[in-house]
Design brief:
This is Helicase HerA central domain-containing protein. InterPro entries: HerA-like, HerA_central, P-loop_NTPase. There is one protein chain. By secondary structure, this protein is of the alpha/beta class. It folds into 3 domains: about 120 residues, no CATH class; about 240 residues, 3-Layer(aba) Sandwich (Rossmann fold), CATH 3.40.50.300; about 170 residues, no CATH class. The protein is built from 19 helices and 24 strands. The strands form 5 sheets. It has a 10-stranded mixed beta sheet, with helices on both faces. A 6-stranded antiparallel beta barrel has the order 1-2-7-6-5-9. A 3-stranded antiparallel beta sheet has the order 15-16-17. Helix 6 packs across helix 11, helix 11 packs antiparallel against helix 12 and helix 13 packs parallel to helix 15. The radius of gyration is 33 Å and the shape is elongated. The two termini are about 60 Å apart. About 35% of the residues are buried.
Length: about 600
């Protein structure tokens, strides 16, 4: 039995009105050794209907001034509350949904803490806890098997506690389920601000940390200072187009010819040197030379480190008639003067000792020379790509290494991009997501026998569709990569967790595919509108709390949960907290 607090006096569809007894207004009550919460907003009541208990949540409270009662000789107004059914108890336990409705004069009772816990803990792991319910102050376990088998969104304004929630969620997972998930799942964090480079989440023995930096040269003896890519992956059209933001109609076909040329004519240095020699002869002996050809040849000679050829090219000029001039004489198309004056220096070209990045610059310049001679392209369409390749490689060489030796990564891989420039912060996450998605998709069984979990903190940096600083083509390509993963990845056992300050900036396609949400304080109207129109499992009462949630408090809802919950997330210990705390000016400025 429980404490009777009132009875049903009206049923309007799914809205129930109860007349509440006076003593039920107390905050806490004890009965038969159990603790009960009094009747207030968001509390739960049990209404008996036959052999079933219909569970209702209190949504409103008012006094009926038209009716009064005598209490201890004093006239008092009648207290009423409005409640909404959320489910019912039968022999099998709690069942969510409205199947039965109470009738007038059915008695209402309070629910003990244990009974409330059974509502939310029905399919949960009682030990997997990251906090306690805000109102009831009951620690409720989360259904971790259903939660991590889905896409997760953690949203909240700056300082609302979303980073602590993200870290807490995975810290508890690694602490409690390490033996279960090791060898069966992998976790990758794209860390823009360097928040997870210490003791966060799990021990160093289970973590691989890549500290990428464009500000300093990488330590050649430290394999974690650069991210490893296989040559086949680097020399792939999708990768090249991503790294250098190639346009669809002209620059992507050009890169395709560069890659096909490498595959067709061999990959050894001798083949590359012979290819360069052939293109030099073709350019010098062409019927009409393009103005840009001479600059391309000078770039090739410089990249191959051939000083004699550089000196020779410095003496060559291009006249308006489309002919090269060397020391006062034109180079004729039949190749006679070329063989005498130019060929001896060109034959000294050597491609030994070049890395993949230098080889790419060479092949791009040589392919452009060939295309210009053949009239395949217009130089002004390819030049922007050429400049991006040459300018980007200095930074890419600092953060990437091309190696055939696969990396030995641990259970958790943290890729810190805190010290990378803004250009690479936009490109690298796409490259990493594509790298893990394609490699996982190519080896996973059907159904999947292993999973991979991609965690993106500050996700608005790369998933925003509001950016006006990039072309629409590149924006579409960037979003398509992640939209494919979030729409199709579940089939292959790949799941995404995103945390963001501005959910309204993130692509609506991506947000609509998220299954479970941890929503901290949000005050922007666009963010709240998105929440209203995206999350079908969020009730109006829970939604109304979002703008006024305190730090660390969040609304938890989604397919893994029977009902929305308000949870106060536990604060992690100092060394386990993500490095995102506000500056303590009192301590900083103190003497």
């Amino acid at each position: 039995m429980s404490i009777r607090v009132g009875e049903v006096i009206a049923v309007h569809g799914t809205k129930i009105v109860l007349k509440i007894d006076e003593q039920s207004s107390k905050e806490t009550l004890f009965y038969d050794g159990d603790k009960y919460k009094g009747v207030s907003i968001r509390e739960y009541l049990s209404i008996q209907r036959g052999f079933r208990d219909i569970i209702c949540m209190v949504e409103g409270e008012f006094l009926d001034e038209s009716r009064t009662e005598l209490l201890d000789g004093k006239q008092t107004f009648v207290r009423k509350v409005e409640a909404r059914p959320i489910g019912y108890f039968d022999r099998s336990g709690f069942n969510q949904g409205i199947k039965f409705l109470p009738m007038i004069q059915d008695a209402a009772h309070l629910l003990s803490e244990e009974r409330i816990r059974s509502i939310f803990d029905r399919e949960a792991d009682g030990d997997f806890k990251i906090g306690q319910m805000l109102k009831e102050e009951i620690a409720v376990g989360l259904p971790w098997k259903r939660l991590f088998n889905s896409h997760i969104g953690i949203f909240g304004n700056t300082g609302s506690g979303k980073s602590n929630t993200l870290a807490n969620l995975y810290t508890v997972l690694f602490d409690q389920k390490l033996t279960v998930i090791t060898g069966k799942s992998r976790f990758i964090i794209l860390d823009f601000n360097g928040e997870y480079g210490g003791e966060q989440l799990t021990s160093a023995a289970n973590k691989t940390l890549y500290q990428l930096s464009t500000m300093t040269s990488p330590d050649q003896n430290d394999p974690t200072s650069r991210f490893p890519l296989a040559p086949d992956e680097f020399w792939e059209l999708e990768t090249m187009a991503l790294l250098f933001q190639a346009t669809t109609n002209t620059q992507r076909p050009f890169l395709s010819r560069v890659i096909n040329g490498k595959q067709r004519f061999g990959e050894n240095p001798a083949s590359l040197a012979n290819y360069a020699k052939a293109k030099f002869r073709q350019s010098f002996c062409a019927g009409e030379v393009k103005p840009a050809t001479l600059d391309l040849m000078r770039t090739v000679a410089k990249r191959m480190g051939n000083q004699p050829l550089q000196d020779l090219l410095a003496e060559i000029t291009l006249y308006r008639n489309g002919r090269f001039n060397y020391r006062g004489a034109f180079i004729d198309p039949n190749g006679t003067q070329y063989a005498v004056h130019i060929a001896p220096s060109v034959e000294t070209l050597d491609a030994q000792g070049l890395d993949e990045f230098d080889e790419l610059v060479l092949r791009v310049n040589l392919q452009l020379m060939s295309d210009l001679n053949a009239g395949y392209v217009q130089f002004e369409y390819i030049q922007p790509l050429l400049k991006r390749v040459e300018s980007s490689l200095a930074s890419l060489r600092k953060v990437l290494t091309i190696s055939r030796v696969p990396s030995a990564e641990q259970l958790l891989t943290v890729i810190s991009m805190r010290r990378c420039n803004n250009e690479l912060k936009k490109i690298l996450p796409l490259l990493f997501a594509k790298h893990y998605y394609n490699s996982h998709k190519s080896v996973v069984a059907n159904p999947p026998d292993c999973t991979i979990h991609l965690i993106i903190d500050e996700a608005h940096n790369i998933l925003s569709d509001q950016s006006a600083r990039e072309s629409e083509t590149w924006k579409d390509y960037r979003l398509e990569q992640f939209e494919e993963i979030i729409k199709e990845g579940r089939k292959f056992g790949m799941f995404i967790t995103i945390a963001s300050q501005r959910p309204a900036d993130i692509s609506s396609t991506i947000v609509s595919q998220i299954h479970n949400f941890f929503i901290h304080r949000l005050v922007n109207d666009r963010d709240l509108y998105l929440i209203d129109n995206t999350i079908s499992t969020l009730d109006s009462l829970s939604r109304s709390h979002i703008p006024s949630l305190s730090q660390g408090c969040c609304v938890v809802t989604g397919t893994a949960f029977e009902l929305p919950m308000l949870i106060q997330v536990d604060r992690l210990l100092g060394n386990k907290q993500p490095a995102s705390e506000d500056v303590d000016l009192e301590r900083l400025w103190s003497e």
